[in-house]
Amino acid sequence: MIFSPTSRTAWRLPALLTSATAGMLVTAGSCNVFDQDLYQNVGVGGGATGTENWAATEDVCPLPESKLLTSDQREHSGLVMLNDHADDYQDIGKLTGMDGPDGLFGFRVASNERVALSAEFVVPPGQSAPPVDLALWLTQACDTNTFIRRNQRCPAGKGETMWWQTNEASEFYLGFDSKAYDQGEYSPQVRLTLTYPRFADGVLDAGESCDDGNTVDGDGCTHDGLVEIKAPDANPIQEVEPNNHPTAGNVVLMDVGDTIKIVGYIGGSCDLDFFLLDVPDGSFPRVTVLGADGKECPEGTPEFKLQFNQLLFDNSEQAKLGDAEIPAVAATGTNYCPQFDETSFAVSELASGRYVVEFKPYDQGQHDPFHYLVQIELLDPNAGTGGAGGGM
Question: Does the residue 151 lie in any domain?
Answer without folding.
Answer: yes
